[in-house]
Amino acid sequence: MLLLPLQAWAQYQEARPEQADSTLVLSLDDALKIALSENTSIKVADLEIKRQKYAQKGAYGALFPQISATGMYSYAIKKQKVFFGSDDDSQGSSSGGGMSSMMEGLMDPIMYYIQQLYEATNTPFVVYVAPEKEGPGSSSEPIEMGRRNQVQLSVSAAMPLVNVQLWESLRLTKDQVELTIEKARESRLSTVTAVKQAYFAVLMAKASYNVYNAVLENAAHNLKLTESRYNVQKASAMDLARAQSSFAAAIPNLYNAENAIRLGLWQLKAVMGVALDTPVDVEGKLLDYAETMFSDLAEGEDSNLERNSQLRQLATQAEILARQIRMQQYAYLPTLNLSLTYNYYTQSDKFNLSQWKWLPSSTAVVTLSIPIFSGGQRYHTIKQTRVQADELQLQRENTERQLRISIRQNLNTMETAMKTYDAASEALKSAEKAYDIASKSYEVGKTTFTDLNNTELTLTQTRLQSAQAVYNFIVAKATLEQTLGYDFTQEK
After folding, report:
1. pTM to 2 decimals?
2. How confident is the model over 191-201, as pLDDT tens digits?
3. How far apart are CA 89 and CA 416, in angstroms?
4. What is the sign, positive or negative, of the torsion defined by CA atoms of 234, 240, 242, 248?
5. What's the Rg (C-alpha) of the chain?
6. Residue 359 three-state SS
7. Is 302 in a helix, a strand, or coil?
8. Can you list the alpha helix ranges (DSSP code H) found in 22-151?
9. Residue 133 carries which DSSP code?
10. CA-based nearest residue to 96, from 136, 133, 144
11. Which of 121, 186, 204, 363 has fewest C-beta within 10 Å?
12. Backbone dihedral region for residue 376 (phi beyond 0: left; psi -120 to 50: alpha; all else: beta)
């Protein structure tokens, strides 16, 4: 029974996975470079920039002529008919005759045009007029118009000549591209911060593992020493039981620390965009960052928010709203458009393509549109956009206030962590010295196991406090760098 804890410790050492030779050991810079090229959110942000640039180029297409071609074929199932003459020829000349002569004058150009169409197709133009019926109610017979087969081909082109609202909308697309680029930059800053936090979490887990591993080794050494003293009746059964319980209690802490390392590496690989099955490890120790704590704190006091991504996005959004207001105001201005149309037209009663006669025609149209009244839609749209701009200004002021609070919190956390580290470093020296004295005294039987256990507990807590202080400092520094908008490239 006395050997059971030692056997469990030996089995644990044998079961521990050794680091494979193929494990990729990364520094912090290596992890950041991999994340900036493999992270999914960054890839999506880059694709969004590309999409917005395509949209901007497509918007400029509105300045060029819009050319289209159409073709139409129609078959007249029943031709249209027209009437000539008055409905009642028996009416007096003062009314019916005057109306008849007026209608004949209006129809003369139409009849001439119809005659020209028929002559162009080498078809005699014949107007059949039925003999008038005698008596009241006599009228002329209707005349069929057109041919059964009709084909029309046309090509049209249109482009704006003067359209101030369109020109302003093109500038709006440029601002939208800049906003997308800034959002991509924010995604990079967030990814850099997430990688740093995951990297530091692994280092903290390793530091905890080292502390608990030292505790377990000390517990194993003390257990062997207590067993030896117990066998020669220099230690009581109570001391032996306490040594065994201390050793057994140290094993779960080591398991938890090892599991924390594994989880931290999974999180690091996830934010880096690396497959979870890839063997990865981190280099360095957490206490290596303690040497630069004082200089980093001095640099962090520069709380300039000019590079903050959130404020830059809000500024760009304000510019977009201002441009939208101008664009809506330009809707009151006239627009000038040009359109060209070229038609090819033919008609025939017989479906014989070789005998069809094609008649070309073309037109050029300049259109001047002057907006006069829209029921107040444009006016209220402008008012709505101005209210939205006022809301954005209030949001920007609140965001800046929250960011400054975050800066002060991070600086305060860094300062507190630095003070904690100084105090823990001094306490660590005393705790190590006290444990050495208590351990040697216990070997010669001058102190009890309880005294040794108390000094070891103090030493363990001091080591963890020292590592936790460094971890709190570098995590707060990473968050502060994101708030201030420090890019990874600018840091280097």
Report:
1. 0.75
2. 999 999 999 99
3. 112
4. positive
5. 45
6. strand
7. coil
8. 28-38, 40-60, 98-120
9. P
10. 136
11. 363
12. left
